[in-house]
Each structure stands twice: as structure tokens, then as C-alpha cells.
Amino acid sequence: xxxxxxxxxxxxxDEAAKLLDLTVPGVEALVAAGYLRAAVDHPGGPRxxxxxxxxxxxxxxDDGSGNLFDEAGDIADPQALLDALDGRSEEMAKRAYDIxxxxxxxxxxxxxxxxxxxxxQARKRFEAxxxxxxxxxxxxDALTGDLQDVGASAAWSGSPLPQLLVILxxxxxxxxxxxxxxxxERGRHWGLALSLLLTRVLPAMDRLxxxxxxxxxxxxxxxxxxxxxxxxxxxxxxxxGVFEIDLDGRVQYANSSLALIVGRTxxxxxxxxxxxxxxxxxxxxxxxxxxxxxxxxxxxxxxxITRADGIRRVVDVTGQSRxxxxxxxxxxxxxxxxxxAHDLEMAKNEFLALITHDLRNxxxxxxxxxxxxxxxxxxxxxxxxxxxxxxxxxxxxxxxxLADDLYDVSRLETSSLVLNPxxxxxxxxxxxxxxxxxxxxxxxTVAVKVEPGLQVHADPRRLxxxxxxxxxxxxxxxxxxxEVTARTWTRGSGVEIIVRDHGNGVPDALVPTLFSRLRxxxxxxxxxGRGTGLGLTLVRGLVEAMGGQVRYERxxxxxxxxxxxxxxxRATGRA
Length: 575
What we know:
- The protein has 18 helices and 16 strands.
- The protein is an alpha+beta fold.
- Strands 6-5-9-8-7 form a five-stranded antiparallel β-sheet.
- Helix 4 crosses helix 9.
């Protein structure tokens, strides 16, 4: 009596060897390696299901053309077998998950919804495989392109290729295994249909696998090329200098920004010693630390260097070792020019120091006079007390003007200063301005020449502030006598006001930034006793806000001359 496993006949190891065209040890080796499964463990030796042997041959045959132990019988239609397989897509999908979770144990911890999603995707994959198989040679390039897109999508989403190929291999083997089982169930005459079907299934699956793999690797290569191109573009167009040096400290690569920062050409940097490129003004160990082992992480520091053209730059340098297979093969770093930020920080500190200085002098005077009055008020004569009171008022006004200047400058910078322009008699405004300036200066050296009846269109309070600042600036920084003149502007419909002194004028190096709030900062020859320099900044802002212009020029015969041009009432259409 023939033994059977389900509907499939069982054969012993000798017959299995003959059917597979192998030796008995060869069959036993396949069983031991897990490539061939015994259906029954028999005392006389393992028994194999004929269907399993056929499936083994089909899976490993070229284009499904292996010997499937065909037996006589009526020929069945391969399409009927294909339709039968389509009805088992759900079953094959569940078996695919069981096999996949054995190969990848982490899948066993998936949630029910994750398992269901895998099974659903597998079912659709089996239906697609059977649809491709049904088309036979009609599979066109468009389908191959779609499959390549599937592989590319997997690459871009980060799915590992081994898992993808394992899933495809599982799908291939399950289709073959299920086809053999269906043929076995339906009888001997289905053998030829099975053989014909497998000649379609296996090539179709191989094309599918190849197309997916090609799409996957093409996407990986493209992504790497794109990443490399993006990296090179970022490095080449970075505003920071980037360099690589070898173990001897010689530059092997530098971008154009580094050449610009250090004032050299790229050819000059090629193979140059880093110590000759970043030349510090003061002794520093930063470069030595950079070229150390750097095993504890990046090395970072700020140094002041001298460029090839002698210009001082402050740079922030970050570097670290470059390793290959655990060995240090060089060093790489980034150089950022922080000169502007560094100088701005210094300027801010200087500004605060100058403000403090300007406040300290009048406050010291007020405190001193106040302490004298508190202690000796009963002993001092009335005229002395009166003079002390005047001094205290003048110093308080000085502090008030400084606070007003700071406030006005901040409002000008934010365009929030409100003006009230109208027709103003210029002679009167100048007289009031000189009275305000006289609290800190001797007005006996100031000469005023204003054409009678001259009018301007301006905010009277701000005009007085402008003239007072210019006169005070001339008295402090220039040499008497100081002249204030005003006349109709011959170049346009307006009025020109000129304030000049007879000193040495403004140094040429300071002229471009004369009206800047930070013009005096960072100069070693600066006289702190001469104030913050806010006066000229405020003058420019107020004059321009009133529709005028202000400029500096060296006066004939020496000295500094500041020329203000303000609109007349006629120029603005006001009487």
C-alpha cells in the first residue's frame, strides 16, 4: 500500500534521491540544512511528500523547467491552476507572515494592526504576481518601471533591502509551493499544467525581484550622489572658511571663503602650512591643540590673526581629527570671521563706558556741591550758595540733555520720533540754542551772523537742539572762535546754516563715519572726556527728519565746518 500525506504520495529517501537525481547523502544533507522537509519521520528512514519534492525542484529549476515527475493523464489548462491560486492569496499571505517572522524575530512583537497590514500587503503582492504571471510575455517595460519605482520608494523611506528581497523570495517560494499543492490535490493530470504555469511564475518573479532591486540601488546611488553634491555645494558656497589638513599640518583642501578671510588665493593655500595661513597676533596654543589627537571632541577657540595684506581679523576656529578605520589621517576645521561681531561687542562696551563717564562727571559735581551745602549751609555766604545752586542746575540740565539725546537717538533709529514742523524765525531759534549750549561752554567766543527775517520750516525745539549740539561740539572739539552763520541757500529754495571753528578739523580717517553713533569707539587716541559722540548722530537724524541735509567739510583756512540745509516755508508751500 502506498503511504500518503494528505493527497500527496510519500516516498522513501532512495526514491527521493532518484527523483531529484541526487545521491542519498545529498538528500540527507538537504534535509539537515533545512532546504528539504521530510513529511514523516519513519523508523526505516524519512518519508517525503511527492508534492514537496516537486516544489523543491520547481523553486530551484531554471525558468520552472525542471523535471516535475510528470505522470500520464489528461492535460489541464494552466489558467485554471492560476485561478485556483488566486483564490488562495489570503492563505499565502498569512503563511508569508509566519515565515517572515521566523526569519526576522522582531516581527513577532508586532501589534495586531501591524500584522494585519503586513498580511494585507502580502495578499496584494500575491495578486499582483499572479496577474503578472497571467500576462506571460505581454509584460511590458511600463510594469518594470513601476516595479523599479517600488524599489526606489523603499530606498527613500529607509526600508532595508535584505528584508525587501526576503519578502519577495518568500512570495516566490509560496506561489510555487501552493501551485504544487493545488496540482497534487487535483490529480495526476494537472502535472503538465503545473509545469507550464511554473515556466511563467518563476521568470515573472525573477523579473519582479530584479526590477525592485535595480530601482532600490538606483535610488540609493542617486541619494548618495545628491547628498554629496549638496554637501559640496554647501561647503563651496559657505560663508565660513572650510579646510582639511594632513598630519603635517599642510592644507589639502580649502574653500574660497577661507581664501577670502585670510586674504590669499586658493593656489596660495594649496599645501601651505596652516600656521602660515592663520597667523595669530599673540601667542596661542589653539593650532597646536587642533593638530593634537583631538580624541575628546572638537577643539574651538577665538584668535586674532593678521592677513597677508596686514589687515587684522578676529576668527573663530573649530576643528577636529579626521579618522579612517579608527586611525587619525588628518584634521578638518571651520573658520568663521567674527570681526564685526567682536568689534560691535567692544563698541557696545565702550558706549556703556562713555555713557557712564558722561554721567559720572555731573553726578560727582552735584554730589559734591550737595554735600557741601548739607554740611556748611549755615556758614556759607548767600552769593556762594547761589553760585552753587546754579552749578547744580547746570549739571542736572547736562544729565537731562544726555538722557534726552539717548532717548531721541533710539526713537530716530526706530522711526518713532514725532515732529511738529512749522514756520520758525531762525535768529530767535539760534539765540535760544546758544543759551542752552552756554550751560557747558563759554559763549563769548561764539559769533552769530544771521540774515534778518530769515525763516525756516522746522520743528523749533528740534532745530534749537541741532544748533546747540553743533555749537557745543565746536567748542569742545575745535578751537575758538566759533562762527554761526545763516543765509538763503543759493543752490535751492531753502536756508543754509553753517557752524565752523578754527581748529585742526576732523581727521580724514574719521570723516566717513563722522555721524555714526559708534564713530569714536575702539580708538586708542580717543579722549573719553569729550563725550559719547551722540551729538552728531542726533544732528543728522533730526535734520533729515525735518526734510533737510547736513554735511561736513574742511573750512577755508582750517577748522571744521558743518553745513545744514533746511527748507524754507515757501519751499513747503507754507506762508
